[in-house]
Amino acid sequence: MAQQIVIEPVTRIEGHAKITIKLDEEGNVADAWFHVTQLRGFEKLCEGRPFSEMPSLMARICGICPVSHSIASAKACDQLLAVRIPEPAVKLRRLINLAQILQSHALSFFHLSAPDLLLGFDSDPQKRNLFGLIEANPQMAKDGIKLRKIGQSVIEILAGKRIHPSWIVPGGVSEPLNVEKRDAILAMLPEAKEITLRTLQWFKFSLEKFRDEIRAFANFPSLFMGLVTSEGKWECYHGRIRVVDGGGHIVADQLDPTEYQDYIGEATEPWTYLKFPYYKPKGYPNGMYRVGPLARLNIIDGFGTDMADQEWAEFRELERGAVLSSFYYHYARLIEILHTVEKMEELLNDPDILSKHVRASAGLNNLEGIGVAEAPRGILFHHYKVNEEGLMEWANLIIATGHNNLAMSKGILQASKHFVKGKQLSEGMLNRVEAVIRAFDPCLSCSTHAVGHMPLHIQLIGPDGTLLDELRRD
Amino acid sequence: MRAPVRIKTLTIDGKEVSAKEGETIWQVARENGIDIPTLCYLEGLSPVGACRLCLVEVKGANRLLPACVTQVEEGMEVTTNSERLVNYRRMILELLFSERNHTCSVCVVNGHCELQRLAQRLGVTHVRFPYRYPDLPVDASHERFAIDHNRCILCTRCVRVCDEIEGAHVWDVMGRGIKSQIIADLNQPWGTSDVCTSCGKCVHVCPTGAIFEKGKAVAEMEKRRQFLPYLTIMRGGKQ
Q1: Chain A residues with CB inside 8 Å of B134's CB?
Q2: N or C: which end of chain A has fewer CB within 10 A?
Q3: Looking at the partner chain, which of A166, A174, A391 has a beta carbon nearest the beta carbon of B140?
Q4: Is residue A146 within 8 Å of A195, Cβ to Cβ?
Q5: pTM here?
C-alpha cells in the first residue's frame, strides 16, 4: 500500500508573521514591512507574582530556549538578592547555557534551514522539509537529530528535564552535579564534535551554490552587539557588551550590561507588535544592530578553544571587515556549536564543577535587578523591579529577535528588491524572503516552522494602495 | 474501670470490617487499607466536611455522605469507589481548578501538591467548566511566608491548625460562597498580625502552594507534617 505523508499547516501559533511589499509606479519594490502580529504580554502577566517564580515563569516564553530565559531571569534575581553566587554554580549555569545553544543551533540548522540548503530554495515545497531531508540525505538528517538530542540530553542530565526545567534558581542552581552525570555528559561529546566537523566541511563546500543568496540576504553594513570576556573572547554567561561596526571596528567596548538603558533605546511602530531596539548614540533607525551567532563572531577576538578558533579565523577571512551577509548566520551557528562542545569538555574536566557549594541564600535586598546573558539567537536582557515584599511590579525584556528586528525588516526589503520581479509572486520568491528571516532564526520560526511551514502572509500593494497579489500560508 | 469499647461491624466495598463506636467511615476505611480521597480532612485536626471529595454511597441512604464526618453504624454497607463517585470527584476537582488560578508549572509545590496528585490519580485531563480567572492578590507581607489566594481551595486546614493546635487563631474565612477568602486577623496584611507566632504550621498543612515559604523556587517546596500526630498525642488525643 502506498504511504502518504501529508504535512498540513499546523496550529502552533507562537509566531504569526506578515510581510507587506509596496511597489512604485514602475512596478518596482519601493518598501517592505515585516509584521509580527501577536502579543504575548509576559512583561504584564508577571506583575504581582513573587520574584522567586520568575526563572520558571519566564522560561515559559519559549519551548526551544527556556534555559536561556531561566538564566537571564535568575541573574536578575541574583541581583535582587544582592548575592554573588558560588563559582561552581556559575560554571554549571554556563554549562547548561552552552548545551542550550548547541541544541537550539542544531534545530535551526538541520531541522529548519537544511532543507533549503540541501534541496535548494526552488525545490518542491512538498519535499522541502525535514522528511524531504531524510529522503535526500539520511546521514545529515540523522546527524541533526543526534546533535540536537545530545544538547537536550545534557540539559536533562543537569536539570532533570529537557524542556522547562526548574533547576536554575535565584542564587545558583538547586542541585550539584555528581561524577556519574558528569561522565555521562563527557561520553556524548566526542560524537557531537564529529558531527559538527562533518557538517562544517559540507557547508563550506556548498557555499559556492548560494552566491545569489549571500549577496541579497540582509547583506549590508550594520552594528553588531554581544557579550565578550574582559579579554574580548566569546562569552555566553557573564561578560560585558561590545559593539562593532560594519567595518569591523570596535565602536564601544566593555559596556556594563546592567546599564543597557543608557545605550539601547526601544522604538515602536504602529504596524507590528515587535519593538525596534536601536543603539542610542546613532539614533533611530540608524542605530540598527544585529545580534546572535553572526554578530558574536564579528565582535570577538577569538573563542579561546583550539578548533573553534581555527574555524573562526577562516570565517573572518570571508570579508575584510565584519562579515555582513546574514546568510552567514548559518555558518556562524556551526562554528559556535563546535565551540560549545569544546567549552563543555573544558568545564567538565574542571574538578570544581562537582562542588556541592552551588547556591547562595539571601532574602530580598535590592528592589531592582538586571540579568543579561547570550541566548542562542543573541543577547538577552531581563530587567525586573519588585516591591518591598518581593512581588513583581515591572519587567522589561529585550529578546534577541527584537534586537534583530530592524535588520530583518531591512533584509526583507533587500531580498524583495532582488528577487521580486513584476507583479506576480512566485513560490521561490516567497521561500527566499522567508529564508532571510529564517537565517536570523527568530523565535517566531522556532515554534511554528518545525515541519517546513511558517505561517506567512505576503501582500503586494500598488502605489495607490490596491492589493495586487497575495500569498498566504497559515 | 474503663468503659467497654463498643464494636460495630459493617462492610466497606464488600469487605467486612469492624470498628469502634464513634469512628468515622474515613478512619475505618483507612485502617483497612482503603484510601478515600480528601483535601480538607487531616488527621489531628477536627473534620469539617468542606471539600466533599470523600463522599461515599451508603445503602439505604437517599444521598451521598461525607466519610470524614459520618460515624459508622452497625450493618452499614458502604461503597467508596463507584463510577458515580469518581465522576463527582472529578467534577469537584474541575470546579476547584476553574475557580481560581492554579498554574502548576510555575508553582512552588509543583510535584508535591495534594490537589495536583489527586487530579492525576482520578484522571482529570481536562476542565469542562470555563475558568473564572479571578484577580486575586499575593500577600507577601510576612517576613518568612506568603499566601497566594490564587492557589487556595478554602479547605480551612490553616484556620483549624492555627486555632486548634497553635492556639493563635490568626486565620479565618471572610465572605460567602464564591467570594469566600482566607484572611489574617481582621482582614489585614499577614505581616501586621499581632498574634501570629510565625510557627509555620499553616504553611505545612496547606494542601496546595497557597501558603509557602518565601525564597523557595518553583517545585522546591515540600510540606512536612510529622509534627501533627505528635502534637495531637501530646494534647491527649483530643481533636
Answers
A1: none
A2: N
A3: A391
A4: yes
A5: 0.90
Q: How far is CA B57 from the centre of its chain?
A: 20
Residue position matching grid coordinates 548566520: A329
Considering chain B, what percentage of its residues have pLDDT values greater than 90?
Answer: 90
Under DSSP, the state recorded for B164 is I
Q: How confident is the model at residue A473 (pLDDT cuts 50, 70, 90)?
A: low
The residues with which A20 forms a beta bridge, in sequence order, are: A33, A459
Q: Which residues of A touch B108 (CB under 8 A)?
A: 52-53
Q: How far apart are CA B107 and CA B93, in angstroms?
A: 18
CATH number at residue B19: 3.10.20.740
Using CB atoms, pick whichever of B105, B137, B214 lies closest to residue A60: B105
The 10s digit of each residue's pLDDT in A194-224 is 999 999 999 999 999 999 999 989 999 999 9
Alpha carbon distance A191, A154 (integer Å): 13
Do the Cβ atoms of B220 and A166 come within 8 Å? Answer: yes
Interface of B with A (CB under 8 A): 105-106, 108, 110, 137-138, 140-141, 146, 148, 191, 214-220
Return d(Cα A181, Cα A187) in angstroms, integer. Answer: 10
The answer to whether residue A83 neighbours chain B at the CB level (below 8 Å) is: no
Cβ-Cβ contacts under 8 Å, B214 against chain A: 50, 52, 363, 390
Task: Name the domain boundary from B18, B48, B81.
Answer: B81
Mean pLDDT of all residues belonging to chain B: 94
Residues 6+ apart with CB under 8 A from A50: A390, A391, A392, B138, B140, B146, B148, B214
A57 part of contact set with chain B, CB < 8 Å: yes
> Check: CATH 1.10.645.10 for A48-272+284-401?
yes
Q: A-chain residues within 8 Å CB-CB of B133?
A: none
User: Do B130 and B225 reside in the same domain of the chain?
Assistant: yes
Cβ separation A50–B105 shorter than 8 A: no
Among residues A214, A219, A135, A127, which one has the least CA distance to residue A427?
A127
Domain ends where: B28, B51, B81? B81
Would you place residue B238 in the very low, low, confident or very high pLDDT band (cuts 50, 70, 90)? low
Q: For chain B, say whether A58 makes contact (Cβ under 8 Å).
A: no
Residue of A97, A96, A106 lying closest to A181 (CA atoms): A96
A166 close to B (CB below 8 A) = yes
pLDDT at A460 over 90: no
Contact B140 A52 (CB under 8 A): no
Report the alpha-carbon distance of residue A25 to residue B22 in Å, rounded.
Answer: 93
B114: its cell numbers: 495534594
Q: How many contiguous H segments (helices) and E segments (strands) does chain B have?
A: 6, 10
| Min Cα–Cα distance to chain A from B137, Å | 7
Q: Which residue of A has its CA nearest to B216?
A: A52
Beta bridge partners of B100: none
Which set of grid coordinates corresponds to residue A472? 498566504
pLDDT in tens, B78-98: 999 999 999 999 999 999 999
DSSP B69-92: TPBP-TT-EEES--HHHHHHHHHH
Nearest to B205 by CA among B34, B89, B52, B44: B44
What is d(CA A323, CA A330) in angstroms, rounded to the nearest whole number? 12
Cis peptide before A285 (omega within 30 of 0): yes
B227, containing H or E segment: helix B227-234
ipTM: 0.89
In a domain, B115, yes or no: yes
